[in-house]
Write a structure and sequence with these properties.
Elements (H helix, E strand, L loop, with lengths): L6 E3 L2 E6 L4 E8 L6 E4 L1 E8 L2 E8 L10 E6 L2 E6 L5 E13 L2 E10 L8 E3 L1 H4 L3 E3 L12 H7 L11 E6 L5 H12 L3 E6 L3 E4 L6 E4 L3 E2 L5 E4 L6 H13 L3 E2 L3 H8 L1 H10 L7 E2 L7 H7 L5 E5 L8 E4 L2 H13 L4 E5 L7 E8 L2 E9 L14 E4 L4 H13 L4 E9 L2 E8 L5 H7 L3 H12 L14
Helix pairs in contact: 3-11, 4-5
């Protein structure tokens, strides 16, 4: 009897898992990896019938994180797996039947957060043994899956298009946060429109005020607008929001809230007057008062911030009083408004980012500064991980967002010997770092907040289709 020859597959292929209700997922074919793995977040171990099970969520499509599938499976093992970067971590192992190129057989999968990877799944050599040979120079030898077919396969995860008309007011449609909000809105059945702030203009009129978009198109009948205004566009972006409000469009964050959050001095005064603990902060106009200003916040080391800055730009530290004087006087010679703030040494270059949506902390992460930096900013090489915050930190984050009347806010907190201290509140917080580290679908939470405000109710989703 002739032995069946293994099929030849490329370096990437489409496959599916019927028991996990995944109709299509791209897999990186990697003979260098022993074990197969699949993207998983919100991993929770539980008992069922006296045995250990695990529940987890899978976002099977790399380009659309709004499609999320909740899965459950028995745990067959827990293994220490070393990633390609050399970092070892403990992972749960499950078994699931794989369908690939007409072949249908059971494989072992480790559950791993692969959000930073190009593929949601990796097929290792143990799973391929006796089934496939790999041609690493080619891809998708078993066939591609079209966008139309994918939409059909995952239509049961999408609400029918009978929802709201929501606009996203920003500058760059391709940014992660903006893309995520657009796809989350579409997944929940809403009509999403992107508007570039710089291409919007206004007609001020008592009877018929208007907002027009490039080519003279009148923006009308929007139920809501999501503002994501970069600091350099604050003045004009807030003017647009006032115009949207005047024509009856709900703005997720108001122009007043955004303006207050961008003014670090004013927001610090608001927090201080509302009994919110912040690092000791000084502000002065005259360079003649520089020495006393430094002593007032406890002396060096200290932090010097431009009054309007974002993502760690315009923030420097001074190790000595002399260095602090030089930096402060240099800023003042440029007529720049600055804040001088005490340095919290015990924080060790770490802070907390709490993401608040509609009066609730929906995710929290701890950010750590790269070596040699004092700023825990992932945009300059820092790292982030999911963390459980204390009830005091949670109350602080919610209260800070409420004081500024922000429906959506990124609240930054630092841990000190005096307890949690509020650093600042961001009215247009980015989603990439916190969604990746926490595994939470925050874009979805933001769309839900709009639905609640406008009292919108969905029709029930159709039953999930079988593969």
């Amino acid at each position: 009897m002739k032995k069946k020859l293994p099929k030849i597959i490329g370096n990437a292929e489409w496959c599916s898992f019927e028991t996990l209700k995944i109709p299509a997922i791209k897999a990186r074919i990697d003979s260098g990896a022993k074990t197969s793995s699949i993207q998983a977040t919100n991993i929770n171990r539980f008992k069922r019938g006296g045995k250990s099970w695990v529940s987890f969520e899978i976002c099977p499509l790399q380009d659309n994180l709004s499609f999320s599938i909740t899965c459950e499976a028995p745990i067959i093992d827990t293994r220490l797996i070393k990633s390609s970067s050399g970092i070892a971590e403990k992972r749960f192992v499950i078994r699931a039947p794989l369908k690939l190129g007409g072949e249908y057989f059971e494989i072992e999968l480790t559950l791993a957060n692969r959000d930073g990877m190009d593929f949601r799944m990796l097929l290792g050599r143990e799973a391929m043994r006796n089934h496939f040979l790999v041609d690493p120079s080619k891809s998708y030898l078993l066939g591609e899956v079209s966008e139309e077919t994918l939409r059909s396969m995952y239509s049961h995860l999408t609400y029918s298009k009978t929802g709201l008309k929501i606009g996203l007011l920003a500058t760059d449609k391709s940014l992660y946060s903006n893309k995520r909000l657009m796809e989350a809105g579409v997944a929940r059945g809403h009509e999403m429109q992107f508007y570039n702030i710089q291409q919007c203009y206004m007609r001020l009129d008592t009877d018929t005020p208007e907002i027009r978009y490039r080519g003279g198109n009148i923006i009308q009948d929007l139920d809501a607008i999501i503002p994501r205004i970069r600091p350099s566009m604050t003045f004009y972006g807030c003017a647009l929001l006032r115009q949207f409000q005047s024509i009856g469009t709900y703005c997720l964050n108001s122009d007043i809230s955004i303006s207050q959050s961008r003014d670090k001095l004013f927001s610090s005064q608001l927090f201080s007057s509302n009994k919110i603990n912040i690092p000791i902060t000084g502000f002065a106009k005259s360079p003649l008062d520089t020495k006393d200003l430094i002593e007032m916040v406890g002396g060096a080391p200290l932090v010097i911030k431009l009054l309007q800055s974002a993502q760690g730009k315009g923030v420097v530290s001074a190790e000595t009083n002399k260095a602090a004087e030089s930096v402060i006087n240099a800023f003042k010679s440029l007529q720049a408004n600055i804040l001088v703030q005490e340095f919290i040494k015990e924080a060790s270059g770490k802070d907390l980012r709490c993401f608040v949506v509609n009066g609730k902390v929906v995710a929290s992460i701890e950010r750590t500064a790269p070596k040699g930096e004092f700023r825990s900013n992932i945009h300059v090489g820092g790292t982030a991980k999911k963390i459980k915050i204390t009830s005091e930190e949670r109350r602080l984050a919610i209260k800070a967002a409420k004081i500024l009347n922000l429906v959506v806010a990124g609240v930054d907190i630092i841990r000190s010997n005096k307890g949690p201290l509020l650093l600042e509140v961001n009215s247009s917080p980015g989603l990439e770092g916190i969604e990746t580290a926490s595994g939470k679908n925050i874009a979805n939470e933001i769309i839900i907040a709009i639905e609640k405000k406008l009292k919108f109710k969905h029709s029930p989703k159709p039953d999930s289709k079988k593969i």
